[in-house]
Write a structure and sequence with these properties.
The termini are far apart. The chain is 24% helix and 27% strand. By secondary structure, the protein is an alpha/beta fold. It contains nine helices and 13 strands. A hairpin with a 4-residue loop joins β10 and β11. The radius of gyration is 20 Å and the shape is globular.
Length: 262
């Protein structure tokens, strides 16, 4: 491919993401989600996907679109959130779900990208995370068909820690505010979230960027993720870049002048 990693379209970028592939996907709720790549994957028709992401988006948005179509066989994440379809499939035994403490999930992705096979953490000690028994998949009758295994626990400095294995995936899908043709990426504020970590964990990382610039246009000190972790770059249109739905809009009633004085 050479140093220019830009591909013509999202469809071309995900063309080799086949059935059963594992994916690390950036985003938190709907913030920083690589929605264009997810939509392209939906159109491709890939099935039995194994997804690692903080959560599975909302009903019909982000990963929720793949989930609603029954394309995700297994999900590793930190919470179900407000995705009712995700909850229904999990409780109905249609999908296997591994719930992981959020900080542990972040470190498992980072460690995978750094070539670290496993690490010890105090998170989860004394709970089912360490002792095993968390429901990964339910049976149709509501019983637990697959449960999490027990993990190794060791003491360091008189404190117990649980051993967690790192995570690597076949592909990673991420979204960045800016990116150059070499794959160097810059993320915008909270949209940074899990994106750099997911990108590190993927063997083939695909980034959709809101603004594509030429090499050298990004100050090296401002790069959040170096291009060594990115294999493909997709430049978004202005309309695609501006499509940023809000997961939950909260407003308050305007106060009257007398209320302000009080």
């Amino acid at each position: 491919m050479g140093s220019d990693k830009v591909v013509a379209s999202a469809a071309e970028a995900v063309a080799d993401v086949g059935d059963g592939a594992s994916l690390a996907v950036g985003g938190f709720g709907l913030c920083g989600v690589p929605a264009v790549l997810i939509d392209a994957l939906y159109e491709r028709g890939s099935e039995r996907l194994r997804v690692v992401s903080n959560n599975c988006g909302l009903d019909g948005r982000g990963l929720g679109r793949l989930l609603g179509a029954g394309r995700i066989a297994r999900a590793m994440g930190s919470y179900v959130g407000e995705n009712k379809e995700f909850a229904r499939q999990y409780l109905g035994g249609e999908i296997e779900v591994e719930l992981v403490p959020q900080g542990t999930l972040a470190e498992r992705l980072r460690a995978g990208g750094a070539g670290i096979p496993a690490f010890y953490t105090p998170a989860g000690v004394g709970t089912l995370v360490a002792e095993g028994g968390l429901p990964w998949r339910y049976a149709p009758d509501g019983s637990v068909a697959v449960a999490s295994p027990a993990k190794e626990v060791r003491e360091f400095g008189g404190r117990p820690y649980v051993l967690e294995e790192s995570v690597t995936t076949d592909f990673a899908l991420v979204r960045a505010a800016r990116g150059d043709r070499h794959g160097n990426l810059v993320f915008d504020k909270a949209a940074r979230n899990f994106n750099p970590l997911a990108a590190m964990a993927g063997r083939v990382t695909i980034a959709e960027v809101e603004e594509l610039v030429e090499p050298g246009a990004i100050d090296p000190d401002h790069v959040h993720l170096p291009g060594v972790f990115v294999q493909r770059v997709v430049a978004l249109t202005r309309e695609q870049a501006a499509d940023k739905p809000i997961e939950k809009r909260t407003v308050r009633t305007a106060r009257t002048a007398s209320e302000v004085r009080d």
